[in-house]
Amino acid sequence: MFRNMLFAAALLTGISIGHCQESVNAGHWQIPNDKDDFHVFLLMGQSNMSGFGKVMPEDRKPVPRVVKVPTKYEGDLKWLPAAHPLHNRLRSDRFGLGLPFAIEYLKNNPNVVVGLIPVAWGGAPIDRLKKGTPIYEDAVQKTKFALKYGKLKGVLWHQGESDTVTDARTNSYEQKLHQLIQDLRKDFANDQLPFVAGNLAEFYGTAKEHSQPERVKRIDKVRTILRTLPSKLENTGFVESKDCSSPDHHMVHFDRGSYLLLGERYAKVFSEMISRPKQKGGNHNN
Fold this sequence. Notes:
It is built from 9 helices and 7 strands; from the N terminus they run H-H-E-H-E-E-H-E-H-E-H-E-H-H-E-H.
């Protein structure tokens, strides 16, 4: 009980959890002294990365050995225990795939702490996420903060719905995605930085508002760009979205169960990628 009271006090006062021995006690959220034991992941994209699933009461409980950089903050950046919603910038931010990924990742890496940097933004086309934009620069700033404590292991990406709105956006999407990956690798001085992209929902394009033939054609083109990414850029991976479902009639977002499934798939693809560092690209999750 005493530990819980200290933990709550740390949250309310903004104390850096990773460097407050009293607040962590058992070490569930303590930042390791060795950078090699602190594995950091950057979460980028739009609403299907920030999450749209229903948040249950138990989802608000912090996950042991997972911390996050807050999306909104005042003063200095700090690490906080991670719970849903990871992204708390927009009202639509809910249950997402980031924490399910971290939980699955820890199963194969039981002696590390995972740090998550959630910077996705609902409704954002890639032009709002690329280098030179406020969202990209925010991601770089937060990641450079994280690199003081740990190692950046990879980037998780789920985005593309907003780039199916016009021919111009869709036709330039591949070039911009490849450039974004190259920019991230240059900015973080790692030309082999793993990058894992998830597919648009298979049900996206079936609702009346998105089912016009021209829109469906653009949706399919973005799906192809994401699926073929591993064959075109080294150390990239692709996650399938089959067997997923949507919570609403718009048929754009995944439901809670689908985000759990996607998180596991991202972890599986990432594990397969790093186990074959000399092979080109990543793997499909079939």
